Amino acid sequence: MKRIIISLVFLAACAIGAVIETAYISSSVDSYTETIDRIDGYMLRDDFENALTECTRLNDEWTDSAHGIDALLIHDYVDDIGLGIAQMKSHIESGNPDMYFSESEKTKKALASIKDSEYPYAENIL
After folding, report:
1. Which pTM was predicted?
2. Contact 33, 112 (CB under 8 A)
3. How far is it, in rounded angstroms, from Cα 39 to Cα 97?
């Protein structure tokens, strides 16, 4: 009976850990996507100064939190998103909105991909 109780405690701990991880990744991705959407709005209004300020802040936030996300996800995805954010900043600095929007869409799709990969769907489990 003692083994069953210990097994159930470990199972509960694993389930709680999985829920916390999913919530953390989901909220982080939502926050980054909202920030990118805000930067997109600045770019549509040709407000490059505010767009650059926001993108710099986004890049710094991603750099700070990438270590935690990197421990939970595949490293290539995290690196690609960091590279995409850096390229977005570069395109803002060079005043190239077309390339910025292209990179912005790629980055948002990559963020959505890591969020979807954390949900307990059958294709993610099998």
Report:
1. 0.82
2. yes
3. 11
pLDDT digits 0-9 by tens, 88-108:
999 999 988 999 999 999 999
Neighbouring C-beta atoms of residue 3, cutoff 10 Å: 7
Residue 54 has which token pair?
A: 């926001």
Cβ proximity of 100 and 18 under 8 Å: no
Cβ atoms 50, 35 nearer than 8 A: no
Convert the pLDDT of each residue in 70-89 to its tens digit.
777 776 778 889 899 999 99
- Measured between alpha carbons, how far is 77 from 70 in angstroms, rounded to an integer? 9
Cα separations (Å) of 94 from 45, 57, 80, 109? 16, 18, 21, 23
Measure the CA–CA gap between 24 and 22, rounded to whole angstroms.
Answer: 5
Classify residue 95 as left (phi > 0), alpha (psi -120 to 50) or beta: left
